[in-house]
Amino acid sequence: MASRKEGTGSTATSSSSTAGAAGKGKGKGGSGDSAVKQVQIDGLVVLKIIKHYQEEGQGTEVVQGVLLGLVVEDRLEITNCFPFPQHTEDDADFDEVQYQMEMMRSLRHVNIDHLHVGWYQSTYYGSFVTRALLDSQFSYQHAIEESVVLIYDPIKTAQGSLSLKAYRLTPKLMEVCKEKDFSPEALKKANITFEYMFEEVPIVIKNSHLINVLMWELEKKSAVADKHELLSLASSNHLGKNLQLLMDRVDEMSQDIVKYNTYMRNTSKQQQQKHQQRRQQENMQRQSRGEPPLPEEDLSKLFKPPQPPARMDSLLIAGQINTYCQNIKEFTAQNLGKLFMAQALQEYNN
Amino acid sequence: MATPAVPVSAPPATPTPVPAAAPASVPAPTPAPAAAPVPAAAPASSSDPAAAAAATAAPGQTPASAQAPAQTPAPALPGPALPGPFPGGRVVRLHPVILASIVDSYERRNEGAARVIGTLLGTVDKHSVEVTNCFSVPHNESEDEVAVDMEFAKNMYELHKKVSPNELILGWYATGHDITEHSVLIHEYYSREAPNPIHLTVDTSLQNGRMSIKAYVSTLMGVPGRTMGVMFTPLTVKYAYYDTERIGVDLIMKTCFSPNRVIGLSSDLQQVGGASARIQDALSTVLQYAEDVLVSADNTVGRFLMSLVNQVPKIVPDDFETMLNSNINDLLMVTYLANLTQSQIALNEKLVNL
Q: How many whole angstroms from its chain centre is CA A308?
């Protein structure tokens, strides 16, 4: 996953063109509120994202793409999207920015909205809370106030229901990222907990009338039978994978905690100021002997205080663990429901 | 000079009804189709590469007469005239994302444009053509001329190739319910890009109250030896879905039922509830049918029904109890662990921030 460079040309044009709409959006919400209360997606975008993952992204690689649309009051409407080529098989002279610019220019010719309003990414079992995502989303949100990142979970979708979520960074987190100061003091000041890093924006799907007509046609013609994967009871594989990932993260978290503890221990040891006391004692002795006192050297020059570990990583890990736990809970809730239904059926039989 | 747009006949099913029977030993005057490609104008030549080229331009398809299809078109000799329809013709498999794209670009057309056109991308298979992507191409159409921005089309194709290098240009699409003369010209443009392009029409003007979706391939027609005309012959259109696509389409279809065409994504238990409601509906339909048809019923349907009823496994109640309980215990334990982990990290957060 590469953090995407924002094409300065495109952001210049798009931010100036969204500034008008954003002004309206900001007028509605207060300065502390997020500018986007709802995300409205066209059916076409959903289909395109699904297709992109299906064709290009097998395995644990993520596929990414750009979302196009516009902002209407406090709603972000996403009307089209295009995929981004992956970086694996690229030669060095592939220019992402140029690809983006050309694509958007061409789409403008056919009257497709060319305002860049966000990006989408597929995820593997819900593991998307990473530094790269944070950086990308920060640069997007910095340039375009209302941008979101759509996370599409193909494995969950294959189990029966479309899993598409829209996330934004909270304003507090934006502040912290702007300062680029990830030390514990700064984060404590900003009072960010892992739950408050990303906020989820509710999604609705909207179709035009003509697309509705198309859907009716397809339903009549294609007659694809429902496969009812949603009601399948065989779930242990999925659950096992989720738990495995959760365990890995918890391990990382515990390592991080150990690091933090050692740091705390070191600082407290330093602050016992043994050296300082010795210096003072020596100074007093010298004064009593009538000699000029030694300058009290700055402690920090002699003993460098240990570096406080960057807290952002542990925040991210905590956020990721939180996401995994929520996924697992959703999953178990569904499965419990299914099991009780199966029980009812069996009782009825007997 | 366009490649003689020749129909792609599925060689095993020799299309034309009349001369199909005699494959190899056809006398000169009867124009025989792909089996023994003998062009009417040059009766003497037995194995004619030009006519063999007429059989197919797509790789992987061999004519029934086991002659390797020569890909080079024969400029001088006209291809064989194939008058009839193609019962076993090539199948075009469409993905729903194509149709949604086409409708969307139709909705965004420029003022005054009656229809939009664009390129179809996809892959070619042995017996079918799978269309997986498309993009619209700006064009201007008036009474007597048509101009297509082929430069744009080429650029877009290059960009698309960067993302999915397997997709080839398969043909083009147009909205509207008729094939006009301009279509022939545009088809000619496209036959320079792709061998034997496919033409897809989506009727957005909703003639006959339906949005008809048809696919064509052009064939030569007319009196051999004179100027040949072009006729568009229909192909079978099938819809192909990936599993996830089907789920997506199911969800999107729900907007048909809501008043302002807006739906939200539902939460976990609601989905299970929805799915079981659907099965309940299906079951009640089946029950209704079974009750209505008491005496004279279809045997096959009866067999299906019986297999359906027998699919509910008969388990000894005790065994089922143990299975159920162990599963429920597993799930409860996992839920408990997840909650525990969440409270742990919350605690950690509080401690760190002290």
A: 25
